[in-house]
Design a protein that fits this description.
By secondary structure, the protein is an alpha+beta fold. Helices cover 29% and strands 25% of the residues. 41% of the residues are buried.
Length: 606
């Protein structure tokens, strides 16, 4: 982003240095949100300001991973109620930055947020959404904040239908529709769910947990007792690691008719369709475990600079392999510890599947976890490091680090202890996050084992990630070979390993071809090619691509029309079968009773 300041504004910032003079009254910032069920596509916003400079910045926070670019949908921004409304003005200085002139240092800034309809039948649970019986307010998309006064407390008044309930981690101030936050960062990390809600609660280790469900009008009925009990047991398993939550209250904001999820400091938003819960009240526990663990690992324990309050493009971080990948490791472990996971697939089955994906992904094998983390958000066509492999690599590294710590400490400590030490470090230091050197230092302090060589070879280096420490302590050995990929009837599967670039704009499908052994690569297709049509069928979305691919069989010939470097070209692909890696585990010849006991505990997630 580029940014320009008027001479007068620059002088003001120079005078105050970005801080408010101690002799002046502190700024007063009060937000008002109005939702009208007659006009669901528009939310009216107001910010009442007092004791602020006559020239002040307003900004929209940018999230490092889940940013909806809602600055595109703000309009009618205006000022009223100042000492001289004729002199009041709003100047847009950048996509996410405005400068407001407030004669007298007070006034009301008003604007509208236009809610965008979902892009698919099942909407993403963290995106803004309104309907006649409620709404999800994702604060960064609604609340413009004052960068120079981000530490000032704020209030929020919600003008909503009287029958609607309010669920948010923001504490109430005298009424459910009046909320407050100690600073902008807390406000912007506290989603607000309003509407016809169901609410259950329980207390665990001193924190009150609220499970709030927003059903569709025609929601399927499910066993809510089993659903909430599953979340309670899952919460207990996570707290066995960290001992306590970062907050005194926590909200699970669960929404029917939605998918996806997002973590926050004292809440999470997640989509869990009621028809899934009707079939199995524990259907989404793995995803819930993932997002709940993020409350610690990625929110409290975060890479340096990650998710800092800013309206600028976020800084890159090499730590997503820990923040996302190790969180996946725990998302598999916690349901097992809480005795909520089915015995099939077993934890060993899960590890085998991870390794088969890993060895079957040349791009992931080629790019180290730190480099893959740093490439987040980039187009694979422009940056070959953008593999997304840090998820899979991080989950494998979670297994390896746990085994490394346990072996070094004679089974007295494990990865749980390292994560708890990282959490306590974040609480005590309250700093801007950890560096990779900090991470190594904390793990070393837990196990005294010196993990520098592991980090050099497998985190910063190309690996491959070696799971031998995991297998050795469990008395297992691994055999790796290749077999033809077949379906459940033993028929050869067609090689449909063709990806798409998620950074492409809507209506554009850019191919990702990162495995040179596929027939798509052999025929000459490249990452970055813009797909036009398959067999004469126009393709403008991933779903349309999948629909065509599903009808292909081994031996079919596919005419692929693409645009490359501004010119259209046609490639003919002959669909073939393919081989896949196969991982098999067996007992070592010297399996001991101690190893067998460790394996039994490991299979249960312990």
């Amino acid at each position: 982003m580029t940014r320009s300041l008027s001479t007068a504004a620059a002088c003001l910032l120079g005078i105050f240095g970005g801080a408010w003079p101690p002799s002046r009254p502190r700024p007063q910032i009060a937000y008002a949100v109005r939702l009208d069920t007659e006009h669901l596509a528009v939310v009216e916003m107001a910010i009442r300001l007092r004791n602020v400079p006559t020239s002040v910045e307003l900004a929209m926070k940018v999230h490092p991973e889940y940013d909806a670019h809602y600055w595109r949908y703000i309009d009618s921004l205006r000022v009223e109620g100042t000492a001289d409304d004729a002199a009041a003005s709003v100047l847009r200085e950048d996509s996410t930055l405005w400068r407001v002139i407030l004669p007298g240092g007070h006034g009301v800034v008003r604007y509208r947020v236009r809610i965008q309809p979902p892009q698919a039948a099942l909407r993403r649970a963290w995106l803004p959404y309104t309907r006649a019986d409620g709404a999800l307010i994702n604060p960064p998309d609604f609340f413009l904040y004052l960068p120079d006064f981000s530490d000032a407390p704020v209030t929020v008044d919600l003008d909503i239908p009287s029958k609607w309930e309010v669920a948010t981690a923001l504490p109430s101030r005298g009424a459910p529709t009046r909320r407050s936050a100690p600073d902008a960062a807390t406000l912007l990390d506290s989603p607000i769910l309003v509407g016809a809600l169901h609410d259950w609660s329980f207390v665990e280790r001193g924190t009150m947990y609220h499970v709030v469900y927003w059903p569709l009008p025609a929601a399927a009925r499910f066993d809510s007792i089993a659903f909430v009990d599953g979340i309670r047991r899952l919460t207990g398993a996570v707290l066995d690691v960290f001992r306590h939550a970062p907050s005194s209250e926590f909200y699970f904001l669960v929404q029917d008719g939605a998918v996806d999820a997002l973590e926050h400091r004292a809440s999470l938003t997640i989509g869990v369709p009621s028809e899934r819960l009707a079939r199995d009240p524990h259907a989404s526990l793995t995803e819930l475990a993932h997002e709940f663990f993020h409350t610690w690992n990625l929110v409290a324990i975060r890479p340096a600079g990650y998710n800092a309050l800013s309206y600028r493009a976020p800084a890159r971080t090499p730590g997503l392999w820990l923040g996302e990948g190790v969180t996946l490791y725990y998302a598999d472990v916690f349901p097992r510890r809480a005795a909520l996971a089915d015995s099939s697939p077993t934890r060993l089955d899960h590890l085998g599947a991870l390794l088969e994906r890993y060895y079957g992904s040349p791009a992931i094998l080629r790019v180290p976890p730190e480099r893959a983390s740093l490439a987040f958000g980039d187009s694979p066509g422009a940056n070959s490091d953008a593999t997304g492999g840090y998820y899979l690599q991080g989950e494998l590294l979670g297994n390896v680090l746990d085994a490394t710590v346990r072996t070094a400490t004679g089974e007295r400590r494990g990865l749980d202890d390292a994560m708890r030490a990282l959490f306590e470090r974040s609480r005590l230091l309250g700093d801007g996050g950890y560096t990779e050197q900090d991470l190594e230092s904390v793990i070393d302090s837990v196990c005294g084992c010196g993990v520098e060589a592991l980090f050099v070879a497998e985190v910063r280096g190309p690996g491959p990630i070696d799971v031998e420490p995991v297998l050795a302590r469990l008395g297992l050995q691994l055999a790796l070979d290749s077999v033809p990929a077949t379906d459940s009837l033993g028929r050869a599967r067609p090689d449909l390993r063709l990806g798409t670039d998620f950074t492409a704009p809507p209506g554009v499908v850019r191919l990702v071809v990162n495995n040179p052994a596929t027939p798509w690569a052999v025929a000459g297709l490249r990452s970055g090619d813009e797909l036009v049509a398959l067999n004469g069928i126009a393709v403008g979305s991933f779903a349309e691509l999948q629909a065509v691919l599903r009808d292909l069989h081994v031996g079919d010939h596919v005419t692929v029309e693409v645009r490359r470097d501004g010119r259209q070209m046609t490639v003919t692909v002959t669909v073939t079968g393919y081989t896949r890696p196969r991982v098999r585990f067996s007992d070592t010849p010297t399996l001991t009773p101690e190893q067998r006991a460790r394996r039994s505990a490991w299979l249960a997630g312990r």
